[in-house]
Amino acid sequence: MKILVTGFDPFGKETINPAWEAVRRLPATIAGAQIVTLQVPTVFDQAASVVHAAIVREQPDVVLDIGQAGGRSGLTPERVAINLNDAGIADNQGNQPVDQPIQADGAAAYFTQLPVKAMVAAIRAAGLPGYLSTTAGTFVCNHLMYQVQYQRAHEFPRLRAGFMHIPFLPSQVSARPGVPSLALTDDVRGLTAAITAIVTQIEDEKDA
């Protein structure tokens, strides 16, 4: 089994993005699955193009995209992506779409194929904060989650894909009193636990 795990580059006023910092520290193999990592730009459309090229190149069984969600207190697998770009800030190339559909012929929403509740349970079993999220927002994170699902629907029907947000790092909240954060080592442990849950679910389905 091969799993493509992506993480965004820094955006907004941040100089670091915990998503990529955690993703690039993942081991090469988790629960017997090969892990391929990829940094993606926080840019509408371009992010999806980069991931699409990686899917064609690597032929993964699973794509798990990771993004930063400042203000959240735990690792949060996302249940659904919606067909909407509505950016409160500009992306890294100055794009700031407002109330625009992502794909004119796409579904209003796509649900993930990943076992999000099992992922949350695995994160919590590792002693880390985790909870299920129903919305990935309307910025580039949701855009990428939606676009990969759209690609799956039209090109890669056997692919399983999903998205997970992780909190700020402690260094990002030093001047933000009361804003939650999570250590990078915990991010890596949490991602590893979630990926293990994905592999376990797929293997159990094969054995059923």
UniProtKB/TrEMBL annotation:
InterPro entries reported for this sequence: Peptidase_C15 (IPR000816), Peptidase_C15-like (IPR016125), Peptidase_C15-like_sf (IPR036440), PGP-I_bact-type (IPR029762), PGPEP1_Cys_AS (IPR033694), PGPEP1_Glu_AS (IPR033693)
Protein name per its UniProtKB record: Pyrrolidone-carboxylate peptidase
PANTHER family, A to Z: PROTEASE FAMILY C15 PYROGLUTAMYL-PEPTIDASE I-RELATED, PYROGLUTAMYL-PEPTIDASE I
Function: Removes 5-oxoproline from various penultimate amino acid residues except L-proline.
Organism: Levilactobacillus spicheri
Stated family: Belongs to the peptidase C15 family.
UniProt-listed Enzyme Commission number(s): 3.4.19.3
Main subcellular localisation: cytoplasm
Source species, domain of life: Bacteria
UniProt-annotated catalytic positions: E78, C141, H165
Enzyme class: hydrolase
One Pfam assignment: Peptidase_C15
Record carries keyword Protease: yes
Gene3D superfamilies: Peptidase C15, pyroglutamyl peptidase I-like
UniProt KW keywords: Cytoplasm, Hydrolase, Protease, Thiol protease
Record note on quaternary structure: Homotetramer.
NCBIfam families assigned to the protein according to its UniProt record, in alphabetical order: PRK13197.1, pyro_pdase
Subcellular location: Cytoplasm
Catalytic activity: Release of an N-terminal pyroglutamyl group from a polypeptide, the second amino acid generally not being Pro
